[in-house]
Specification:
The protein has eight helices and seven strands, in the order αββββαβααααββαα. By secondary structure, the chain is an alpha+beta fold. The chain has one domain: 3-Layer(aba) Sandwich (L-fuculose-1-phosphate Aldolase). Helix 1 runs parallel beside helix 7, helix 2 packs parallel to helix 6 and helix 3 crosses helix 7.
Length: 234
């Protein structure tokens, strides 16, 4: 993907977060990575979404050093860069403080997988990072958040559960490109909302089970997914 096209894709991913009601004011951000060039394109800090243009987006290297742009990059750049360095399969990232996902994050509770909709897109509970200590908050907080996310996926493929709650903060979602990252952000909010209401209705609602979960996830996201259109030559 050329950088110009990546700028357009990242801008659209950011605007999709707004359209889906996942951001408040200028909070939240989306980014994309050009692997061949080793470059990240990310939303600038504190620029209103309705004023944002492709040329406003900031280009950095994978270490977070600005290589193009006159605006400051998002304050969450360090987290984005850490995830891109750790997980080569990730091509886009979205960070939001959407209402229901953030409520779970602030309650320090992973989102349990108690239904088919959740299982369609996330293979297991939505994980929660460890809490960041007061001492760490005064340091490189965003880089530390990236490390906490990476540790949560030491034994798990990040593409099987492409979203996580950051304790006491918000959430990050990702995908193969910026569009998929923003899509996974609103899917996360949908399952967070459903899980919240389910827990209110029945505090003892149970996990759907490993076998059912595996079948549910593969049905939507596996190589032989039933909901993917396949075209065959006539």
């Amino acid at each position: 993907m050329l950088q110009g096209k990546l700028r357009e894709a990242v801008l659209e991913a950011n605007l999709e977060l707004v359209r889906r009601g996942l951001v408040l004011s200028t909070f939240g951000n989306a980014s994309g990575v050009a692997r061949d060039e080793g470059l990240i394109v990310i939303k600038p800090c504190d620029v209103p979404y309705n004023e944002m243009r492709p040329e406003h987006l900031v280009v950095t290297d994978l270490q977070g050093n600005v290589v193009e742009g006159t605006l400051r990059p998002s304050s969450d750049l360090a987290t984005h860069a850490a995830l891109y360095r750790a997980f080569p399969s990730i091509g886009g990232i979205a960070h939001t403080h959407s209402e229901y996902a953030t409520a779970w994050a602030q309650a320090r509770k992973p989102i349990p997988n108690i239904g088919g909709t959740h299982g369609d897109y996330f293979h297991g509970p939505i994980p929660l990072t460890e809490a960041v200590s007061v001492g760490e908050i005064t340091g490189e907080h965003k880089a530390i958040a990236g490390g906490a996310i990476i540790r949560a996926y030491e034994t798990t493929d990040p593409m099987n559960a492409p979203a996580i709650l950051v304790a006491n903060d918000g959430s990050f979602a990702w995908g193969s490109d910026p569009r998929e990252a923003s899509e996974n952000a609103w899917k996360l909010e949908a399952v967070a909302r459903a899980a919240y209401y389910a827990a209110c209705i029945n505090p003892y609602a149970s996990f759907i089970g490993k076998t059912s979960l595996g079948r549910q996830f593969l049905r939507m996201c596996g190589q032989k997914a039933q909901y993917n259109q396949t075209r065959t030559k006539a």
